[in-house]
Amino acid sequence: MTSVALEEQQEKLRRLVDDWRLQSNVLLNNLAKDPYRSPSTFDACSSNYDPVRVFAEPLEHSSLSTLVESDNVAVSKFVAVLSYDCSEISRLSRYARRNIYRQLSLFGHGSNPQEMLLEGEPQKAFGHALPLFMELSDITRRMSAVMCNLLQQLDFIYSLQDKNGTPCKSFKNITLVTAFTSLGDGLAMFLILDEVLANNDHIKNYLSLFTSMLNKVKLEVDNLGIAVGDLDCLDQVLSHLGRLLEFGLFKRLLREESSWNEILQKINQNRKFLDACTSCIHDGLLAIIPRLDTWKESLLDRKEILHYVALLLFGTYATAQMPEKRLGKVIKEMLQVVPVIYCEGGFRFILLDLLRSQFIPPLSAWPILRDATTESATIKNKYLIHLNEMYSRDWQPMKNALACWVASFQSTIYQMVELSKVEACLTLHFKQIIQGILLANRMQMMVTSMLDLHMLLQVPIRRERLMSLCHIVVLIKVVESTFRKKELDIIQTLPHMINLIQEEIEQLLLLVKEKLLSEISRGSQAGKIKILSSLTRGRDTDTRLTDALSLVLISLRMLEGGGSGKRLCILSTALDVLQSILLGYLDIDYSRIKKLISKVELVAKFQRILEDVTECSFLYWREELMGTWFSMVYMDVNKLSWLQYLLDAFCDGLRLLKHGHVGKSVIHSLEEKIESAVKNDILAPLCKDIETDLRLHVHSTHLKESVPVNPRKTGVRNLSCYIQLKPLRLPMKSIHIKLHVESYLNSAFHKYTAMSPNDWKIYLDMRQLAGLKYGLVLNEIHLPEHSLETDFDVACIMQNLEEFAATYSYNMSNQVFIRKASSNHGRKASSVFGADNVVSSITTHGFGMISAALNSVLNFVTQKIIALPEFLQENFVNSISRKDINVLKISKKSTNGYPSVQGDRYDVAMKLPFGDDELRLLEQIRCTITYIGNVLGLVRVLQAGCLRYAYSESRFIRKPASIIRYDEEFQKLGSIDGMVTAAKIMHTAVKIIHQAEAHVEFFSSLLTTVSKGLQSSEKMPVRDFYLIIPPLIIYSLDFKINGKDKIMRRGPDTVNQIIMDDGFMMGVAFVLKVTEQEKALDGLHWFANMSEHLHQQLLSLEESKDTEQHTGNSGLTQLKIWGKTGSPISTETKKVIDKIKNYQNELELVHCSLDIAQTIIICN
């Protein structure tokens, strides 16, 4: 490495360390401010999100031609060409797996599938993803060219009629398993891409919208200032993408590619190639199927099934004939044993559907497919039953094996000191790595298959099985965590383990080399050796021996490196040729060599393989399991250690989204769901359970007879284990359970003490018990018993809000509450509650008491509103005849509005035509609405008190646009300590203003909250509620006027009785607003009609009075006698006239009060 490159790497490392140091400081500062909620870019304690991680994988810097260079030029070229194609196919497939599949599957994915995008958003999203689709086009084009070249080489090798002669005569009857497997790998890439594109409808839709936009842009090129050449280039790209996605990539590759059409025609006539391909598929599937769902199943068996299926489809396209019978039997067995496979990030392939969709139409009547189609549902159900049986059979042995593996793996990984034990320890170390990866792969396959098949077949999962699947997910993350803890130790010993396996392969090949050298040295003694017994010409024998020796030498040279993928590919190709040349003549254990090569590849790429087998991103599509599993874990103390592993499993979905390059809103939505699940299913129940436990123990002491506590049943659950848990690590933040519980209890105890000052001793004992039993450090409760300025305290009022609403009357104009005379209990003075009392309570308790009070108001109003329809059901509707209801509904549509007089139903005395039961029901409705209005009035009084307190504390401070830390600003200016202290006082005062304004805004949100509560409630007020308002007002007027009459009579029970009904008007206005019936009430024109009706009655009585006076003064009585007046008006008539005038005044006052109340509701 040059000095310049070394300096660049050192500079990058220095920058990385500096960034990490800065982010660590930010993390520590956030923890100091808000420890249990502080967000962080990553968690230094989490292995999944380490800032620095060592990634080790063997790389090859030598070119392929250099690696296979040999004196035997023909053999060298032969191996080089095949190895290059196989290596390139593997590279392209690996690139698609990392950079194409997930990005395409998540294209257009949003946090809410039903969310409608704004106009232009799909086009914008497709424009941002154009590089992805360009990569898709490039990689499919390159893969097509490489596979076509590989097919040409294989066609030439297996060709029976070669005019130019075979370059290597000893290569006539070879079986190139590696080449065919690589061909299947490349073809499988097209099948996976077709599956991804078929399951994502956004791609074609967005492409269509983007193309339409581009056509519109072409018409306005001059206005937009875009070069025509750029548009044409983009148009060509879109046209190519459209053709690429139109018929499916796999079918388009085999049908429309001109280069492939030529090679397919050649292959159709090359029977030797087709037989070799068929044999490769048959032998491969025959070897894999018995191993499936057993402990012998290897890591790549299920992926290779997809490769062989791709080769089968390729063969049917090439020959246009049905597969051979022997191959048909294997395919039938495969469809029964493993009808569904999952590969490449959890993509599901139903093999039967794949064959049916990709088979050419003439072969769709293949009996194997036809029979399997008729039994498709049965096969899937049998496979699910088989998985359940396999789970029941292998679950316990799997747990035991994993427990032994974790213990042995952690105990065997250590630095070697004695050289005599190095080889044995490396061998054991190597076996442990392979065993852990295979266990994780088997568990991942099991949980993925069972969850997906239960959803696909809509079969419910039993709770016990769901818990077991949760356990499997936890064990997968345990394997990952165990590997991560020892990752550096593994990396240190990685080259030695690879060399150890390669030495074993080398020993086997050296035996072959010695035998070949021995045979070549003998030369003329051909008759004594079995390998030459069937040959007649020594020249052919020498060629075969020398070619085999060249292949052995190339293989040995490949074992001299570090186990890179390129070297292993060359080694596998050379061994395929060598096996074909020496088949039946030399006893070589090729199967053992192949297994050792696969182990080298597994160990060399253990980090990438480990990420694949321990990834739980499939849980992103099973978000409903999050709350269920968290609840299960919380209910069992023995499973608390699962919690962090479960969080890591669900956080794998974040890595999936980040790799898929989705929008930040989608990632943020998943983060919120995970955090919300933790808080709702773990933290919230834990806080409530700890509070309940403390409350039961304390109450059992204070109320020994009322709250019996059995120590054998109560408190047996050890909740302290939850408090002792380490902070839960999330990629975006850490959640400290202990600090969260402390914050909850501090808030709860302060609130309860503020709301119930008489119980302060109980909450003090609970706080002390929390420290003794759970080790919680709680704040002192600095609250006096009650407010000392007056007899009123907001905290005391909130203890029984309904009693306050019943015993006090609200004055809307003066913003005060006056105690009703019936509730004064013989007092000579009335009690008044106003804003001054609120200020006194805030001074005593602080704004926390106001927050608790407003929450109580919200609950009270919501309960009353929802309970109101219970009075408006059948009883009241039946009390008014159907005829009257119809008249009301008809009349409100006319210009006259609500009928103030219907015959003589409402006489001059304003008596309602209802019986006692109906009047009693009206009284209940009036009281309920009055309670609501009084409580809303209490909210206004609380608002006024908050503002008065805030501005009395900071009357000379200008309101800033945002809260400024004055003390910090003064410190920056270098001010003295006295000025900094004054700045702190100013900051506190400004903060009080903002807190007060936050509480004032509560009134405006109350209406919205209650409206949402009604919409979600099944009990909605009746549709014609506004029609009941007039009878309620008339009843209220009667009640009010009768009360004032009692005051005029000055009875002994009416001392200091003051009648106010503003609470009723406020409640009516609020209920009308909530039920959206205020316009309907205005449409009745009831107040105008009632005023007119009373006016007409008054005129009628005035006329009758004049008539009575005229009649009384007729005849001799017309002669006035000195000192005498005319005939007086009757007492009853005068009473009626006075009463109507009182009704007019009160009605006008009620109308004005209702207008004011509605204005208040609307303005807020």
UniProtKB/TrEMBL annotation:
Entry protein name: WASH complex subunit 4 N-terminal domain-containing protein
Domain WASH complex subunit 7 central: 618-960
Annotated WASH complex subunit 7 C-terminal domain residues: 981-1158
WASH complex subunit 4 N-terminal domain segment(s): 41-617
The organism of origin for this protein: Papaver somniferum (Opium poppy)
PANTHER family per UniProt: WASH COMPLEX SUBUNIT 4
GO biological process, one term: endosomal transport
Example of a GO cellular component annotation carried by this entry: WASH complex
One Pfam family it belongs to: WASH-4_N
